[in-house]
């Protein structure tokens, strides 16, 4: 009679052999051209490949950056920029407003940024989960997730203990306050 197979471990694979990288190692790989044909992020030491943005995403990103440029100095606006969030995490955001001019440094750091924006055409779970928590842990003061499927902007502020204390939702077409200014913009 046949008996079920037994395994030596309840774990499906041994994670002790998983390669983990530091931000410095990740940056050296980038500089060497290892990721020239792809978009990569480093998330808690692990490499994650990002899908290229689609047309709807690119269009919404351009409109947001143009609207921000009407109320914030151009030297404080960045579109699709890398953020060094600590020793083992480097993420790219779709747009950002800086606290102050920083020139043409490589990656931005959390203390350079007043607002981070993600456009969630196909990444809503990641943007509202993993990225929200990473940005809050890094101390980024304000975070918007542009949710095209629901036609809303998820607004987060006041990072406390690894998450945001202030959470709100603004419908497309309604004014949204731009951090660091007295101005508002409308997202659609």
Automatic annotation (TrEMBL):
One of its GO terms (molecular function) is endonuclease activity. Keywords: Endonuclease, Hydrolase, Nuclease. InterPro entries: Nuclease_put_TT1808, Restrct_endonuc-II-like, Uma2. It comes from the Bacteria. Pfam families: Uma2 (PF05685). Residues 25-178 form the Putative restriction endonuclease domain. This is Uma2 family endonuclease. It comes from Sphingomonas mollis.
